[in-house]
Amino acid sequence: MNDQPIQPPRRTRFIDVADRVIRGGRRLGVVGPAQLDKHFLMDQAAAATGLDDFGDRWFERPFDALLESVKHEARLNAAGDFSAMKQFHHVLRDRLYAQMWFKRHPEILARPLKNPVVIVGPMRSGTTRLHRLLASDQRFAHLRSFETISPVPRPEFEDVLAGEKEDFRPKLAARIMKVARLANPRTLSIHPTGPYEPEEELGLLVASMWSMKHDAQWHVPSYAQWCEGENPVEAYRHMANLLRLIGWSQQESSLRPWILKTPQHMLDLPALLEVFPDARLIFTHRDPKQVVGSAASLAWNQTIIYSDHNDPAQTGRQWLGKTATMIERMRAARDAIPRDRMIDVQYDDMETDWRGTMERVYRFLELDMAPAVDGMQRFLDRSARLKRRPHRYSLAEFGLRADEVDERFADYTATYGIPVEGPPAPLRRLVAE
């Protein structure tokens, strides 16, 4: 019997090499030092674009909290702070370009966003699969992966609409994904995707320096705590305007309702419903042991890229607590939502009978499912090809026990009738979590 503790995966040598190269470049003066200062970053983005209107300045509040947490808690390595600067520059540049488009084409902000279908569930609870099944139905509008990475077209995009140029954003997304896979080859097994795959709108909330993406990328507990006390309605308003811009850039009919999803909505349901008052909500549920184990694995595989100081037990506790907060806030917000506006879907039902479960979803949406079935089957076939390796994870590698997770979420699982099994197996093979 092997008594050695289960260890989470190590990062790849690619990151170690990149980190050494950046450090060497800084010593030689050919790579600039990390400058995680808000004014420097905003001035740099303004100089790069020749623009100075960032839109609503609410985003500076979470930006201040995030930068403070990154500088004092994240303990980034050279590759980490280099990529953080690039990420912030990308987000700030997109805010400037977004305001440019809103001024150039005021009709963008007049586009309606009627009756969106919003999937709400914890990380790793089957939201991606449900989202992509619905996105395969042409009666709905959806984001593509390259649009959540780069939601805002560049100034020459009108030439793309005229057929004179090619939109560079899918190629950029492909390059970013290639680098991400080099940095972490487990990416495809955890979240299979491609530039044109349906994707969640998390990047549209990151545009306001808001969202748990930052928690899953860096160790930023004070930022996460700060966010829990804030009302993010302005972030959701900006997200809605970016959806309008994306719909315009897709030349998408504004009559087709959007399919939306990101686990962030569990924390922010009141803000979501203030901005999208006619949203129809699909709540997903899964055994919390699988949710916590898989979420901790996802976060671990991100944070080990950006920092040399990672503790798997700390990651496990963080995502146990984060999952509990998400569920508590979701449950509290549901009390104010009319029952006919929402439906609950079990992960296990999707595993055993996806078609029957989707038929129930379509009855809720008052739509005939028959026209969508072929597209859904094509998605499932494509997803099986994308998911080249199983996602391996366990509670034990993050210092957690099955019984403590069961006890922590006993009321939640009982209230929503969630099937609870034994601890996560070391090997899980899922179509898309």
TrEMBL record:
Extract the GO molecular function terms from the UniProt entry.
Answer: transferase activity
Per the UniProt entry, the signal peptide is none
Keyword Ribosomal protein carried by entry? no
InterPro entries named in the record: P-loop_NTPase, Stf3_sulfotransferase
Keyword Transferase assigned: yes
- Keyword entries, A-Z: Transferase
Q: Which domain of life is it from?
A: Bacteria
Tell me the Gene3D superfamilies matching this sequence: P-loop containing nucleotide triphosphate hydrolases (3.40.50.300)
The cross-references to PANTHER family, in alphabetical order and at most eight, read:
OMEGA-HYDROXY-BETA-DIHYDROMENAQUINONE-9 SULFOTRANSFERASE STF3, PAPS-DEPENDENT SULFOTRANSFERASE STF3
Q: What's the protein called, per UniProt?
A: Putative sulfotransferase
